[in-house]
Amino acid sequence: MRTHSSPLASAHPPDPIRSLLPSPPRAGADSRRFWHSLQKSWASRYGLALVCLLVAFGLQSQLLPFMSSGPFLFFYGAVMVAGWWGGWGPALLVTALSIAVVDSHFLPPRLSIQMRSADILALSLFGLLSVFITKLNVTLSRALGERAALLEREHQAHAAAEEARSRLHTIFMQAPAQIFFLRGASHVFDFSNARNSALLEQEATPGTAMREGMFKLGEQDVLGVLDRVYATGEPFQGSAVPLRVPQPDGKEKEVFYNLTYQPTRDERGQVEGIAGFGFDVTDLVHARQRAEALATELRQAEFRTRVLAEVSTVLASSLDHEATLRNLAKLVVPALADWCFVDLAEPNGTFRRLEVAHARPEDAPVAAEVINFQLMPEGNPRHPPTAALLRGEAILFEEMTPAHIKRSAHNENHARVMLATGLRSFIAVPLVVRGHTLGVFSFFTSFSNRRYTQADLAFGLELAYRAALSMENARLYREAQEAIRLRDEFLSIASHELKTPLTPLSLKLQALARELERHPDAIPYSLVKGYVDTGARQVKKLAELVGDLLDVSRIAAGRLALELEDVDLGALLREVAQRYEPHATRAGSVLLIEGEETELVGRWDRLRLEQVVTNLIDNAVKYGAGKPITLTLEQGPTRARLRVRDQGIGIAPEHLPRLFGRFERAVSERHYGGLGLGLYITRTLVEAMGGRVRVESEQGRGSTFTVDLPRERTLPVDVQAAPPQ
After folding, report:
1. DSSP assignment of 59-96, as one string?
2. Angle between helices 282-316 and 454-518 (to 10 degrees)
């Protein structure tokens, strides 16, 4: 700690501990007290009086030849000393003894006590003068004693004052506060303690004027405040005043002080300076700020918990995810935001703005325009909701400036509308669940001027997660309901389809049994052959149905096995078409094969490829409406293509996206049989061999199924090759 010279203390202030102890007695004071105690003694007063009398007697005896006419001179001195030292008693004693001695020894007749009239007068005058001298001596002695006492008290008071000043200086220098005294209108330092000098980052020695810019009270320079106090005489007091102190590196350090600037006045009451006192409350202010921040955070956490509880209630209130998201947007506004957008993903890959919620009714015209602007994933990645969608992560803009809004807008009209909303702080959160993006949830502030923080971003993520989970649960519920419907429908169709071959088979067996009863010896060959052929067809149909069910179970269990070999697709197609010729003829259709006559060989599973061709031809015959069916083969360097085109009933556009699904049907099972598994199995088998199947159809004008297969195929990791036989 640096020390400072000051008029309040000497150059070397006393030790702070010793300054609190009583000062040791001084030598002069001890001698005065000794003589004072001696003077108060009875023996010393009367003893000194007798000594003075003896001295006067001796001197008068020795000088009598020269002073015979003045025998009282030395005795006057004895009376004077006795009165000065001892007071009235010793002085009167010396006076009486002096009269007796002078009368007996120095006035004629000597050695006699006889008095002449002249001697009586002289002795009386001597006595009166001695009393008068004693009176003067006693009065003077008393006055001098009082003066000495006053001087002693003055000396003690001066010492006490110096000690108090030294102690005060020590207290000021070591005080846990900033203390300084300024003098005059130019604010010259009279005193500055160590803490104040440390605050100023310089030595504020007496005689140094406070400079402009030493530090600031908020935005105001401290000199302005001091000038006002000096000019008006009104003190300045501030609690937790922010001080900005310049640092050597050019930056400013902010601290907080409780300040008091008190004007000091002269004897005429005029302001002559300023006394300043400051207490550093920076830690207290920071602690209070942290406490306030914590209290705010707790309030916000409580608010978020309450909002999340309401959100959970809203999300659980309905399985209609669109209605739920609309209600969620209206809950967020105005609890968390002034505006809220909800953009949902469509099945075709585009996005639709579902909801625009706003807090103020007067913003309804702007909201009607905002809802027309969609996300543009391929056109404007700077658009905040689009950016959140493309990145797959939440985006926070604490402050959106007009320039930023214009840069991120789709076009000038979009920028105009977004500026009209008054956008300030923005959060966009993608609705993602199980790796699938379902949409984007966006909200922002405008007229409330609230600025979002990372805590709000985390809250937005939680909202989006719950909303996405609610949407996914609703989707899963719908799929479960649809699966139950499909199951029930499948069971109904399966039972019907299984009964279809069993019924004629049972009838033929019953008819054959009757024929056996009528012809116990021999049944006509043609009759038996007809019954057997019919039964064989029904058994084959039943086996195909059971085979489809087994294939579906294998596919679902991931146990689909392929045996790859070189297969001639053209030969396989002709073989299946020849086998299906009678069935097509019964349906009134003709199978036409188009394509190259050369071999079209590839690495495929022969049985599974035959199953694919069979399913497609069977499907074309079933829905071909008795019209010709064209089978076309195309050969490429690395791929083979098969087209199966019928001119039948066609497929409605709304059924095309789900046509290759399990148990899916595009027509009524009353008019067309089947389990709805053929195309699902076909798609699965084609994809397992590395190919792709698609359909083009127009209702009432037929359908075209196209299969693309690679001629060289490596098995995917989820398909097992069958073990060699």
Report:
1. HHHHTTTT-TT-TTHHHHHHHHHHHHHH-HHHHHHHHH
2. 20
Pick the range with the lowest mean pLDDT from 218-232, 507-521, 601-615: 507-521
Nearest one of 346, 297, 336 to 429, comparing CA atoms: 336
Q: How confident is the model at residue 413 (pLDDT cuts 50, 70, 90)?
A: very high
Answer whether 392's CB lies under 8 Å from 432's CB.
yes
The DSSP code sequence of 420-441 is HHT--SEEEEEEEETTEEEEEE
- Length of the chain in terms of residues written: 725
pLDDT, tens digit (0-9, with 9 covering 90-100), for 657-692 = 767 776 555 444 444 445 567 787 888 888 888 899
Other beta carbons less than 10 A from residue 181's beta carbon: 20
426-433/395-397 β-pairing: antiparallel
Helix (H, G, I), strand (E, B) or coil at 605: strand
In the numeric block, the tokens 């019964």 are attached to 586
In whole angstroms, what is the distance from residue 189 CA to residue 208 CA?
5
C-alpha–C-alpha distance, residues 123 and 125, integer Å? 5
Instruction: Say if residues 410 and 379 touch (Cβ distance below 8 Å).
Output: yes
Angle, helices 27-39/42-62, rounded to nearest 10 degrees = 80
Indicate the angle between helix axes 88-101 and 117-174, nearest 10 degrees.
Answer: 150
Here the tokens at position 569 are 């697709």
Q: What tens digit of pLDDT does each residue of 254-293 get? A: 888 888 989 999 888 889 998 888 888 888 888 888 888 7
Tell me the Ramachandran region of residue 269: left when phi exceeds 0, alpha when psi lies from -120 to 50, beta otherwise. left
- For residue range 296-329, list pLDDT tens digits in order: 777 777 776 777 677 777 767 777 878 888 888 8
Least Cα distance to 584 among 553, 554, 548, 614 occurs for 614
Closest CA to 639 of 565, 713, 711, 715: 711
CA–CA gap between residue 189 and residue 4 (Å, rounded): 11
Question: Which range has the worst mean pLDDT, 21-35, 385-399, 541-555?
Answer: 21-35
Task: Give CA–CA dist 82/91, Å, rounded.
Answer: 5
Angle at the Cα of 651 from the Cα atoms of 650 and 654, rounded to 5 degrees? 160
Share of the chain above pLDDT 90, in %: 8
> In the prediction, which pLDDT does 445 show?
92
Residue 55's identity, in one-letter code, is V
> Residue 188 is which amino acid?
V
b/e sequence 593-621, b meaning 16+ C-beta within 10 Å: eebeeeebebbbbeebbbbbbbbbbbbbb
- pTM assigned to the model: 0.47
Q: Where do runs of H (alpha helix) occur along 6-72?
A: 27-39, 42-62
Residue where the block lists tokens 């002073």: 67
The Cβ-side half-sphere exposure at 8, using a 13 Å CA radius, reads 22
